[in-house]
Specification:
This protein has about 240 residues and is an all-alpha fold. Helix content is about 75%, strand content about 0%. It folds into 2 domains: about 70 residues, Homeodomain-like (Arc Repressor Mutant, subunit A), CATH 1.10.10; about 160 residues, Tetracycline Repressor, domain 2. Helix 3 packs across helix 6 and helix 6 runs parallel beside helix 9.
Length: about 240
């Protein structure tokens, strides 16, 4: 009977009770979870305090683990920053694409993306962009490539959509305006252009986005913007 159970694969020869493979699988899942926790903790601290001021000791202390444990997963802070930039770009790209497919029109898409950016701004310090440019140029290059390729093309697609929907003017320069919009967004995160002591990033984003949209829309689009603003104010 015992032999038959072992051959068929009883509870003792399956799962975490009997198979070495299951124990390895469980351990691998724990390692993966810890690796993700480290990355999430680094993101939280970098976004709150900037990159330069946060050490590997700070991240370890935040998680209640040793610094040696972090080094089992990440070679150094430079690698951690680089992987984090990859993650942030991927998360933002996925969210933007969801807004594009879920929006009823081009203007609604712009407002949805603006809400996404506002949420990010409430949880991020502008100093992170300064630190990234000055101390982690390889990671900053990832963002620049993302900006100069993906983001510019996304803005262009939104413009083409708005024109086809009759919400944007037909005479818009599809090459120049996306570059102009990217420059606007870059400046929002510049502590030189908009010092945090004088300007709130979310407020700046709102004003610049309104001016950007009003400069592109047709009469039909103008009415839709005002309808959206009235709904938002009433809500």
């Amino acid at each position: 009977m015992l032999q038959a159970l072992l051959q068929e694969g009883s509870i003792f020869s399956r799962g975490n009770f009997g198979l070495e493979k299951s124990f390895h699988s469980f351990a691998a899942e724990e390692r993966k979870e810890l690796e993700e926790r480290i990355l999430m903790a680094a993101e939280e601290l970098f976004c709150r305090y900037g990159i330069k001021s946060i050490t590997m000791d700070d991240i370890a202390g935040h998680l209640g683990i040793s610094k040696k444990t972090i080094y089992q997963f990440y070679k150094d802070k430079k690698e951690l920053v680089h992987l984090l930039m990859h993650k942030m770009i991927g998360d933002q790209q996925a969210e933007f694409e969801a807004h594009e497919s879920g929006a009823n029109n081009a203007i609604e898409e712009i407002f949805a993306v603006m809400v996404c950016l506002q949420r990010m701004m409430h949880s991020i310090s502008p100093v992170i962009f300064y630190d990234m440019q000055k101390y982690h140029p390889e990671s900053w290059q990832l963002y620049q490539d993302y900006r100069d390729n993906y983001l510019i093309q996304r803005i262009r697609r939104n413009m083409e959509r708005g024109i086809s929907e009759g919400l944007y003017r037909k005479d818009l320069d599809l090459d120049l305006i996306p570059v102009f919009r990217i420059k606007q967004l870059d400046d929002i995160f510049s502590t030189t252009v908009y010092p945090p002591s004088r300007f709130n990033m979310a407020d700046v984003l709102n004003k610049l986005t309104e001016h950007f949209l009003y400069g592109m829309v047709s009469l039909k689009g103008y009415k839709l913007i005002n309808e959206h603003k009235n709904i938002k104010e009433e809500g």
